[in-house]
Amino acid sequence: MHILWLFSYLTLLSASLCAATEFSPTAKNTKIQSTNIREASGIAISPTNPDFMWIINDSGNPPEIHLAGIDGSDHGKITLKGAKNNDWEDLASFTLDGKPYLIVADTGDNNAKRESSKFYIFSEPKIPSGANHLAETVSPAWVIQFRFRDGPRDCESVAVDARAEKIYFLSKRTIPPELYELPLRAKEKNSIQVVQSMGAISVKSPNSELIQFLDQPTGMDISADGTLAAVITYCGIFVYHKLPDQSWATAFSQKPVALPEHHLGQAESVAFSKDGKTIFALAEGKSPEVIRYNGK
User: CA–CA separation, 50 vs 52, rounded Å?
Assistant: First the structure.
């Protein structure tokens, strides 16, 4: 009985790891056309329409979320009411109780001085049809405020596992990066939750011995089925697979699959397609480039 169980487990593990290695870069790269996207820092594929993606700008920009086609076309923007872009660093999409949501991570802290950080969660607006452009103001469905138990941390990598109803995020400037989690649903209104490290993650590029900042994570996403995570650094993209009986802390502590180098000037964000078969990566700057890795 134990031998049969072990055989089944190893077969599943082998198949999963093989699936994770089948992402390869394609020639279908695009440029973002919207002139309002000047310092892109986060990307998320729409949970309702796979032909669209949402993009945010970094600190100092208005609290806006921009809508683009996966071909780079401009489809307008929304303004997040009552929010401030202190240092927006990542964006994720998810479906909860059958409803589509987006989460904005106001979690950047280059100088490690912030007393607390925020997640803004709001319902995804209806995608406009045809040539119509989105121009709305939306209010957050809820806001989660938190602080790190061991002092301020810079964080640019945030993802949601909607099945587990958890938010996962990584420290950027610690060596190695550390993993944190929070409940996805808000607890007490206006309370500040305290998070502590769940452990270090395994991420190491070939050249990190010479330039350590290459391994700093700048974006993260978790597939809708909760089995794959992708972390992007200045050097590459790393894919982690979580088995059904594993925690994300365990999955992230194991050696990931390194995808072929992205060659982006300043890699800032990564996102899975809704079906988990494509990985999108985004560079910072004006008219940023979005590249794709397709899976089989």
Answer: 6
For 193, the token pair is 């939750």
- Number of separate domains in the chain: 1
Task: Supply the pTM of this predicted model.
Answer: 0.90
Euclidean distance between CA atoms 56 and 41, whole angstroms: 6
* CATH code where residue 58 lies: 2.120.10
Greatest Cα-to-Cα distance within the chain, rounded to the nearest angstrom: 62
Structure tokens at 232: 């992007």
Cβ-contact 222, 247 below 8 angstroms: no
Q: Compute the average pLDDT of residues 203-220.
A: 73
Per residue in 104-123, pLDDT (tens digit) is 999 999 999 999 999 999 99
List, as one string, the DSSP characters of 68-98.
EETTS-EEEEEEETT---SSEEEEEEEEETT
d(CA 201, CA 205): 13
**Which of 158, 22, 17 has its CA nearest to residue 87?**
158
CB atoms within 10 A of CB 158: 26
Q: Which residue has the tokens 């050696």?
A: 255
Q: Is the sign of the CA dihedral 110, 247, 293, 72 positive or negative?
A: negative
Q: Cβ distance 107 to 91 under 8 Å?
A: no
What is the domain range of residue 111?
2-294
**CA R_g for the chain:** 18
Which three-class secondary structure state does DSSP give residue 238? strand
Strand 192-195 with 142-148, pairing: parallel
3-state secondary structure of 105: strand
